Each structure stands twice: as structure tokens, then as C-alpha cells.
Amino acid sequence: MTLAQKGRWTTVAGLALLAAVYVRALAFTPIERTQGPAQKIYYIHVPAAIWTETAMILVGLASIFFLFLKDARLDSFAEASAEVGTAFATIVLTTGPIWGKPIWGTWWTWDARLTSTLFLFFLYIGYLLLRGAVMEAGARARYAAVLGICGMCLVPFIHFSVYLFRTLHPMPIIMKPSTPSLPGSMLATWSFSFVAFTVLYVGFVMQRYALARAGARQEAGHV
Amino acid sequence: MSEGFPHNAGYMVAAYTVAAVILVAYAVTLWRRTRGL
Q1: Is residue A25 situated within a structural domain?
Q2: Contact B37 A2 (CB under 8 A)
Q3: What CA–CA distance (Å, rounded) separates A75 from A59?
Q4: What is the ipTM of this complex?
Q5: What is the pLDDT of residues A84-143, one digit of tens each?
Q6: Residue A8 located in a structural domain
Q7: How confident is the model at residue A170 (pLDDT cuts 50, 70, 90)?
């Protein structure tokens, strides 16, 4: 079985897990008293946000190692992780405002967390556009690596922005030094969702990495 | 739905639908692009 086929089956498993998450979250997880059903958006928004940020950290780390080792596989991995991160960032930037409208009374506010997350999305888009715009493979990989490292540096700022600034965005209730402030059943649903998103990230990256390697081989064959 | 909760289930359904559409659409595009691999 090829890597792309393994990635396809991993993605199928991830989508099946996600379907189970939907059933558990929508039908078997209690409704939070003050926010109502809209609070359940949390179970998909936060895992997507964590993988949006983690994907960019992995892009940055792969880029650093690429600049030192000049191993094209690292560049291919960065390319794959960036595209998958863009998909997750799209989920974050759509589900967030859908939650914000009933809870905050507005779809969007220019606070530090939201603005920096939007900036990360634009960095992802810029990264992908840059890769599409530079024809020479070596230069493309180097330029993309520099941008990937810049993106990685933005991630800690996004995470800590709620501590550094007065923001409308809620403080972390799971990714914090103390124990998560969620009841057990809600935490179990969130954890289940996080596992589903993790499997999806792995499945997507396996397929996209196989595609990137095939593209690199084809490109090398034309030189 | 209990009377004491805010009635905002439509937002929840919209968010879950959007997320599912994005993930399934991306999975389909990857499947199409990697068919020969």
C-alpha cells in the first residue's frame, strides 16, 4: 500500500470518528446553561484551532531543519502541513464568528486573538501563493522556509494574546497550566473531537505529502 | 430543548455544517489529486 493510500484510509477513519463526535456532541453532551446549544461549537472550533497552530509550528520546524539539512522531504512536509493548516484555519475563522454572533452579539471584533488568527490565515495563504509563484525549486523551498519560520514565530503570540491584551475572546479552559475547567462529559466530548481532528490532520498530511513528493520527482525529471 | 437555555441551536447547526463541508470537500480534493499515487 502506498503512502497516499494509507493517508486515504486514515482520512476515512478520521471522518468516521468525526461523525461519531457529531453524534456525541449534538445528542449526548449536556447543553451549557448560559450559552445554550451554541456552546457546542467549542467542540469543533478548539481542536481545529489547536491543529491550525500546531500545523504552522510543524511547518516552521521542518523549514528550520530544511535550511540546515537541505533535505527536500522536509520541504515537502512543510508544504503538506501548510495546506492542511489552511483548511483547519478556515474552519476556525468560520465557526468562531458563528459562535460569536449569539454569544457576543457580533460576528467579528478586532481584538488581539481574532486579528492575529486572521493574520495567521493570511500567512498560510501567502505561503501557498509563494510556493505557486516561484518556479525554481531551490529558491521556492528557501523562500517558503523563511515565511514558514515567520509563521511559527506568530503562534505563541496568538496563544498568549488573551493574557497579553484585554480581549473579548475567552481565556483557555483546556490549554492552560491548571486543570481543565470543563465538566467530565464535556471534556470527554472535546477529547474525542481532538482525537478525530488529529487523525484527520495525519491522514490529510500523508496524502498531501505523497502528492508533494510526486510533484518534486516530476519536477526533477523535467530538469 | 429546555426553556431555560438561550435558543441559538441554529448557530450550532450552521457551525457543524460548515466544518463538515470544509473537511469533506478537502478530503475529496485530496482523493482526486492523489488517485494515481
Answers
A1: no
A2: yes
A3: 9
A4: 0.92
A5: 999 999 999 999 999 999 999 999 999 999 999 999 999 999 999 999 999 999 999 999
A6: yes
A7: confident
Contacts of B24 in chain A (CB under 8 A): 15
State the cell numbers at A214: 510526486
For the record, the C-alpha cell of A135 comes out as 518556479
Among candidate residues A196, A187, A182, A175, the one with its CA nearest the CA of residue A22: A196
**A31 CB near a chain B CB, below 8 Å?**
yes
User: How many CB atoms are located within 10 Å of the residue B24 CB?
Assistant: 13
Q: Do A98 and B2 touch (CB under 8 A)?
A: no
Domain contains A83: yes
**Residue A35: inside a domain:** no
Using the beta-carbon criterion (under 8 Å), do B23 and A99 form an inter-chain contact?
no
Q: Tell me which chain B residue has its CA closest to the CA of residue A32.
A: B5
Measured between beta carbons, which residues in chain B are less than 8 angstroms from residue A52?
none
Q: Where are the domains of chain B?
A: 10-37
How many structural domains compose chain A?
1
